[in-house]
Design brief:
This protein is an alpha/beta fold and about 280 residues long. It folds into 2 domains: about 70 residues, no CATH class; about 190 residues, 3-Layer(aba) Sandwich (Rossmann fold). The protein has 9 helices and 10 strands. A 7-stranded mixed β-sheet has the order 6-2-1-7-8-10-9. The chain has a 3-stranded antiparallel β-sheet with strand order 3-5-4. It is globular, with a radius of gyration of 20 Å. About 40% of the residues are buried. The site of S-adenosylmethionine (SAM) has 22 residues, from helix 6.
Length: about 280
Amino acid sequence: MTAPAHLSAAKTEDIEIRLLLEAIFQKYHYDFRGYAMASVKRRLSQAREFFNCRSFSVLQDQVLHDASMLPSLLGYLTVQVSEMFRDPLYFRAIREKVVPHLRTYPSLKVWIAGCSTGEELYSFAILFREEGLLERTMFYATDINPDALKRAEMGVYDLDRVKLFTENHRLSGGKSSLSDYYTAAYGAASFDKSLRKNAVFSDHSLATDAVFAETQLVSCRNVLIYFNKDLQDRAIGLFSQSLARKGFLGLGAKETLRFSAHADGFTEFARDERIYQKRDRS
Ligand SMILES: C[S@@+](CC[C@H](N)C(=O)[O-])C[C@H]1O[C@@H](n2cnc3c(N)ncnc32)[C@H](O)[C@@H]1O
């Protein structure tokens, strides 16, 4: 019995996509093999159209032989949507519930995993300055997209986005005016260098790299949604290894630890805001 033509075409496409992801991994060491298939497929279809390729196999052939295609392919495969104080109630919970614990440490390390173009990092830096913690904090802002990391390091955003950032900051319980932290010129808001004085921006993949520091807080928001269950477990395993006892893990509004292999290692600290605390086990 033969499968209907449209089913077999879809199956062929799935095979081609797996081979394309394998090729990208083997040649360039970017590992998208554990990403949720539906969204990878959607994104790669857009890339295939952009590169004007008849099939994913043709795209694979071109990518293997032309490294200059990689940056824009990465642009398709990674989603760079972000905003400052995104989901303000998350930042309010960090301020009101997590900060009192963090105050008890003489020095702090905070990991922003999947920091994209930096909006999340600057939100934390502003919040920490308002709470008097910035000077004692080292931030690690990591991502796999080099263009996003460069923009994160610059901290310059379109001025027309700043209205939303300002409102988010206010709703997060901001104690100052957001305009204290940037200068506006030529349609752009340039955030104060002193906010990133103790920030390290680096290339780090949750799919292939290891833990690099002990931290008291990890914020990894809107990244795990793109991963399949195994890769989510790998990433959460890294966070668990990195966190000191009683350290905090913050996830995105649509993410949870509930089904993770590491769920037992954490308690729900602020359930609605998806903030977890690592258990105090010896
Ligand atoms: C939607 S953005 C989230 C930005 C920010 N955390 C926020 O919530 O506004 C997802 C980010 O995850 C990054 N990313 C994707 N795969 C990754 C991986 N394996 N390791 C680290 N970062 C990854 C993407 O490059 C992108 O910058």
